[in-house]
Structure formats: C-alpha cells, structure tokens
Amino acid sequence: MAVRYPEGVEEGLTEELVCSLEQPDESPDLTDGERAALRFADLFATDHLRIDDVVHDDLRRYYTEDQLVEIGLICAISVGIGRLAATWHVVDHVPDALQAPGQVAPWNIDAALASAAAPTG
C-alpha cells in the first residue's frame, strides 16, 4: 500500500481505491468477499495467530477451498517477499521521501511524492 507507481497503473486501480484498503469495512467500492479476503490478509501480515475457524468460515461464504488455498499462498508469498526486500532495503527505484521506514502510508503518499519532487538547496 505504501509504494505504488503512478505511471502505468492498472486500469481501474485508483488512488482512492488503494486508500480505501486502509479501512475496507467502510469502503463502498469493495464486495463483501473482498472485505473478508482483506481481513484475512491483514491478519496474516500482522497477527496470524488470530486467524481461526471464524475467519476461515467467513471466507468460505465467498470462496471455494481451492480459492482459499490460493489466497493463503498469495499472502504467504507477498508477506515473505516484502519482508525479505525490507531486509535488503531494496529502495533504489523509490524516491528518497518514500524510503524512510514508517514514514509513508497510502493516505499521505501525495505529500511524500511532492516532498520528493521539491527542489533541494
């Protein structure tokens, strides 16, 4: 959510939609299934031990078992690659203002990008 590339963005993916992911329960642009998947993904990344039968049963309302496996694998790969990249501090292609850990979130990316583009000196 914190690092995106404005040019070449997938059609339909807007800044507003990305920012709505911070509070998916309040987003009018998401389906109930998408909200359930986002709850799972958030727990997977931040508090995986809270994923219990209730979380899985909620997902089963919208997804098949095969799709649940796919969602789980995508989360595992994404979290793992993100954490590995963080240990390598892979930020060469990212503007300086976006490199500071904990400084960028989707709701302040415009300010960070403006700061990165501002002339120095």
Total number of strands: 0
* Proportion of strand residues: under 5%
The dominant shape is globular
Distance between the termini: 30 Å
Number of helices: 5
Largest sheet: none
Assign a percent range to the helix content: 40-55%
As for the number of domains, it is 1
The radius of gyration over CA amounts to 17 Å
**Structural class, please?**
mainly alpha
Uncertain segments of ≥5 residues (pLDDT<50)?
none
Give the helices and strands as they follow along the chain: HHHHH
Q: Name the average pLDDT.
A: 78
Task: Please tell me about this protein's structure.
- It contains 5 helices and no strands.
- It has helices at residues 15-20, 32-46, 53-60, 65-88, 109-117.
- It has one domain (30-115).
Describe this protein with a few key phrases.
121 residues, mainly alpha, 5 helices, 0% strand, globular
The gist of it:
With 121 residues, the protein is an all-alpha fold.
Strand and helix layout:
Blueprint: H1 15-20, H2 32-46, H3 53-60, H4 65-88, H5 109-117
Helix pairs in contact: 2-3, 2-4
